[in-house]
């Protein structure tokens, strides 16, 4: 199993590469580029939220408590709230994630459980898509894909680290196959996970249903993201 620092190093490099693609392929401005690179890096750490070690969990929830409210800012502005009301909601969201959600999460998750899985990766990407309420669909997709790319890198790295060699003999450790999975041994957990995934996917479809996307593809959408000034 890869270490926390190993995942951080790998996801940081992946985030830099993802941001570079946005610069050279789509000519994006530095704001979306760094936000996408940052979310890719964070996505590569998210599966460690179910870690049995206290340090990664504490660091990740502290980070999530900051990033979550920031992503929520667009949605709060669209709701017409005053600056004072927005600050109150952002402060409440920070406390909820940092202290409430982290405590609940630790009680209901187990290491290498459903949070190390493909549906969890999709849920993470859809959560970013919904939290970041931007009128630009391409930007929302770009950020969601970056989060899922980082998340997937963590799962793949864990699987690669579960394979060892003894001479010419292939050897798997006890964690082999526990990251790139679609189901948990617990059916109640599976029901909750897939219910949440379907609900988030359905809401995403509802949000984009009024847009004319019949002949659009991702490069077309991403080109509408603010680009660098010449």
**SSE order, one letter for each helix or strand:** HHHHHHEEHH
Query: Beta fraction of the residues?
Result: under 5%
Largest sheet: 2 strands, antiparallel
Helix content: 55-70%
Number of strands: 2
Instruction: Kindly give the count of domains.
Output: 1
Mean pLDDT: 78
Q: What is the distance, rounded to the nearest whole angstrom, between the alpha carbons of the first and last residues?
A: 45 Å
Annotation field: number of helices: 8
- Describe the strand arrangement of the main beta sheet, using strand numbers: 1-2
Rg, alpha carbons? 19 Å
Secondary structural class = mainly alpha
Query: What is the chains' assembly state?
Result: single chain
Q: Return residue spans where pLDDT drops below 50 for at least 5 consecutive residues.
A: 163-173
Shape, per Cα inertia axes: globular
Characterization of this structure:
By secondary structure, the chain is mainly alpha-helical. It has one domain (4-222). The protein has helices spanning 4-26, 30-43, 54-78, 83-108, 118-131, 137-161, 187-208, 218-222; strands at 163-166, 169-172. The protein has a two-stranded antiparallel sheet. A hairpin with a 2-residue loop joins strand 1 and strand 2 (169-172). Helix 2 runs parallel beside helix 6 (137-161). The longest helix has 26 residues, at 83-108. The protein is globular, with a radius of gyration of 19 Å. The N and C termini lie far apart (45 Å).
């Amino acid at each position: 199993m890869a270490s926390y620092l190993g995942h951080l190093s790998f996801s940081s490099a992946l985030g830099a590469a993802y941001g570079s693609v946005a610069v050279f392929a789509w000519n994006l401005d530095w704001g979306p580029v760094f936000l996408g690179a940052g979310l890719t890096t964070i996505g590569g750490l998210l599966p460690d939220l179910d870690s049995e070690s206290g340090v990664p969990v504490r660091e990740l929830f502290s980070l999530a408590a900051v990033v979550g409210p920031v992503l929520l800012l667009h949605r709060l502005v669209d709701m017409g709230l005053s600056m004072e009301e927005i600050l109150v909601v952002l402060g409440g969201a920070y406390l909820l994630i940092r202290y409430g959600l982290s405590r609940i999460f630790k009680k209901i998750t187990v290491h290498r459980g459903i949070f190390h899985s493909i549906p969890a990766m999709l849920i993470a990407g859809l959560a970013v898509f919904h939290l970041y309420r931007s009128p630009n669909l391409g930007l929302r997709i770009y950020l969601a894909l970056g989060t899922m790319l980082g998340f997937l890198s963590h799962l793949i790295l864990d699987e690669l680290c579960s394979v060892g060699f003894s001479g010419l003999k292939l050897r798997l450790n006890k964690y082999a196959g526990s990251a790139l999975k679609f189901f948990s041994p617990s059916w109640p957990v599976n029901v909750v996970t897939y219910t949440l995934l379907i609900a988030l996917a359905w809401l995403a479809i509802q949000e984009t249903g009024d847009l004319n996307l019949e002949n659009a593809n991702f490069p077309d959408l991403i080109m509408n993201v603010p680009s660098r000034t010449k």
